[in-house]
Amino acid sequence: MRRPLQASSTPLARALSAEIVACGPMRLDRFMERILQDPEHGYYRRGRPLGREGDFITAPEISQIFGELVGLWLADRWMAAGRPAPARLVELGPGRGTLMADALRAMAVVPELHRALDVHLVESHPELKREQAARVPGAHWHDRFDDVPAGPLLLIANEFFDALPIRQFRREATGWSECHVGLDEEGGDFRFVFRPVPARTLEDLFPAGRLAGIAPGGIIEANEAARAIMTLIARRLAEEGGAALIIDYGYAAPGHGDTLQAVRRHARVPLFEAPGEADWTAHVDFTALAAAADAQGARVFGPLAQGPFLEALGIGLRAERLAAGKEEHVRAEIMSGVARLVAGEAMGALFQVLAILGPQTAEPPPGFLVPPSGGGR
Ligand code: SAH
Questions:
Q1: pLDDT bucket at 51, cuts 50 / 70 / 90
Q2: Which of 23, 35, 143, 272 has its CA 20 to 30 A from that of 108?
Q3: β-pair type (87-92, 153-158)
Q4: In the structure, what pLDDT confidence band is assigned to residue 376 with cuts at 50, 70 and 90?
Q5: 61: Cβ below 6 Å to ligand 1?
Q6: Is residue 64 part of a domain?
């Protein structure tokens, strides 16, 4: 049987290929933006991202302790910021609302905080908004972070930044080229096309040293959308105080390489297999996010790997408490969930945590008080 042609495999594929026929190859970030956010067919408008029946699973869906610890971290930061009221508790990309519901339950240990907060969720997916409304009654929804009302901020984003569009650049024997999506000769399949790009473009996007070690053929990615949102968050924190916690998989140190991937039904699939019906993501460049936040006068801690971060916040103790007195199979489920979040070979090392604080607080936030190297625990 013949493989179905990519360019006609889904309604979004047909729309994109028609545009490429009319206008020529499309820059990768614009193509990715359409894959994820096309108003009619985009994956984060119509897809089924989360859960066993969906395409992938996230930390708060693995263990309730994840959201609880995030909630306690934010509660601590609210107290450190001088207990402002009102304070905006914001989540970017709240998925099914699980993380926020778990965080709010944990934050209820500080009744005054519960009264000071209003909850703002930034979400593009209509069906996920409905799921969020069921788990987080009384929240306010926004299409963009900019629309969150002024005031001190307590913000969490887990697996949000990896879903923002990237550009890719390739070093050539002389100069650089940029990745676009075009069509093969018959017009039946998508393919990547690299087109020359002025060196100025890269100089504007990357600090000088970042490009030095890349040999011909090497790829480097830039996430302008992520940097722009980080800039807005950091500016708000610098002006009005508060804290943000960004958790995602990505580069802890300056790196390069092609990290674009498509995921469907819990497995990696070819990028162009079913446009709009598979998730497209790229590794988050934490160095670039940290630099964007620092440029706004916010204070930056990390990135730190998720495993040590959660351990420092006491995930082991919390798991023991939660499991105490439970049946053996429940206990085993709690412990295996925690292991998945913390273990280096699971999510503990690939996922990174970046904390951004207003300039008012001096000490490192909880979890980032890493003991001096060589010291035992
Ligand atoms: N934080 C959740 C879900 C992560 S999946 C969890 O940890 O389980 C990514 C989430 O971000 C989804 O809710 C998705 O619909 C949302 N999202 C992705 N891109 C977005 C965008 N550009 N604007 C608003 N929401 C977006």
A1: confident
A2: 143
A3: parallel
A4: very low
A5: yes
A6: yes
Ligand 1 contact, 152 CB (< 6 A): no
Q: Give the pLDDT band (50/70/90) at residue 371.
A: low
pLDDT band at 369 (very low <50, low <70, confident <90, very high): confident
**Rounded to the nearest whole angstrom, what is the distance from the C-alpha of residue 45 to the centroid of ligand 1?**
10
Q: Is the N-terminal amide bond of 303 cis, ω within 30° of 0?
A: yes
Residue 368 belongs to some domain of the structure: no
Residue 367 alpha carbon to ligand 1 centre in Å: 25
Whole-angstrom distance, CA of residue 73 vs CA of residue 322? 18
Instruction: With cut-offs at 50, 70 and 90, classify the pLDDT of residue 223.
Output: very high
Mutation pick for ligand 1 pocket among 123, 281, 351 (CB with most ligand atoms within 8 Å): 123
Binding site membership of 60 for ligand 1 (Cβ less than 6 Å): yes
Q: Is 44 in the pocket of ligand 1 (CB under 6 A)?
A: yes
Q: What total of structural domains would you count in the chain?
A: 1
d(CA 46, CA 125): 7
Regarding the beta carbon of 63 and ligand 1, being less than 6 Å apart is answered no
Atom of ligand 1 nearest to the CA of 157: 1
The CATH number linked to 297 is: 3.40.50.150
For ligand 1, the distance from its centroid to the CA atom of residue 160, given in whole angstroms, is: 5
- Host domain of residue 130: 59-163+223-255+280-357
What global pTM score does this model have? 0.95
